[in-house]
Amino acid sequence: MKNTIFLILLITTGFCFGQEPKFDKLEQLYSQGHYKMVHRKANRLIKKQEYNYSLIPSYYIAITQIQLSTDNYWLKKHPDALVDSKNRIIEIKKNTEGKRIIETHINEIAELREDILNWHSVNQSMKNIGIERWTQLEHIFEILFKDISIPEITPIANESNIGDNSLNKNRRKIIKEASKHIGTPYLWGGTTTNGFDCSGFTQYVYKKNSLTIPRVAKHQYANAKKIKEKNLKTGDLVFFSNSSKISHVGIIYSIKDSEIKMIHASSSKGITITDLKKSKYWMTRLKGYGTFIEK
């Protein structure tokens, strides 16, 4: 009886005074990319009776397992993780509380989708990803995104500025070429004007300007000359990572004061210009800058 009263008081207190601190901590750690830590903490919480009133721990177990499934080593140790994630998401979407969790964490879900699509793009070969794993992820997303609207996760920049006239001819030509393809759709493994993935786009634009760079984003990063932000120029490359691995690449479109814009192949928008500094999503994943241009 005492335990029942305590649980009721705990639930009431949680509703009256805001979110449970341990749940807040899960959200904070997840936003910082500490997926393994979130997974461990959520699994501990779900085993404690006093937290059974909420589906939040189960939600974080589900989405961290999706994130961690991109790590081959982790997935070998947790072979049933994606099946478990699918079942958890089905249960979460069955009731009012679960639907509310999805609604209040919609930005996390949008970012999760972007991360997985970028991972798929970077690992173009199905041999690296595995057809079964990708099929499972597609099925999970079909369930997760059904009946919900996914918001844009990146602020789209003003597209009227086509480069900086003070730059040398080569850099202006790179931006001019890149700008021709605004609106071209995103395509996994795409390297032509029919559709581009992130590194397919950067390679194509550079090749049009007699610059040969590797096909894959991680190899572009490995071979580029690393530069600091203060030395960054239009036409250079910007790289992003998720869980320490290169996950995306874009071309610096313009720099003005503290503003940096990139043109890139977005999985949701195709070739578009994004205001980098105004995007929490991209800034938290920023790996660094590189160049293949001598001047």
Distance between the termini: 76 Å
Beta-strand fraction estimate: 15-25%
- Sheet bearing the most strands, described? 6 strands, antiparallel
Task: Kindly provide the radius of gyration, computed on alpha-carbon positions and rounded to a whole number of angstroms.
Answer: 22 Å
Low-confidence stretches: 1-18
Describe the protein.
With 295 residues, this protein is of the alpha+beta class. It folds into two domains: 144 residues, no CATH class; 123 residues, endopeptidase domain like (from Nostoc punctiforme) (endopeptidase fold (from Nostoc punctiforme), Alpha-Beta Complex). It is 50% helix and 15% strand. A six-stranded antiparallel β-sheet has the order 3-8-4-5-6-7. It has a two-stranded antiparallel ribbon with strand order 1-2. Strand 5 and strand 6 form a beta hairpin. Helix 2 packs antiparallel against helix 3 and helix 4 packs antiparallel against helix 6. The radius of gyration is 22 Å and the shape is elongated.
Short précis:
Helix content is 50%, strand content 15%.
Q: Which descriptors apply to this entry?
A:
six-stranded antiparallel β-sheet, two-stranded antiparallel sheet, endopeptidase fold (from Nostoc punctiforme), 295 residues, 2 domains, single chain, elongated
Set down the secondary structure blueprint:
Blueprint: H1 2-16, H2 21-31, H3 35-46, H4 56-68, H5 72-77, H6 81-92, H7 96-104, H8 106-122, H9 126-129, H10 131-145, H11 169-179, E1 191-192, E2 195-196, H12 198-208, H13 217-223, E3 225-227, E4 237-242, E5 245-256, E6 259-266, E7 270-275, H14 280-283, E8 286-291
Antiparallel strand pairs: 1-2, 3-8, 4-5, 4-8, 5-6, 6-7
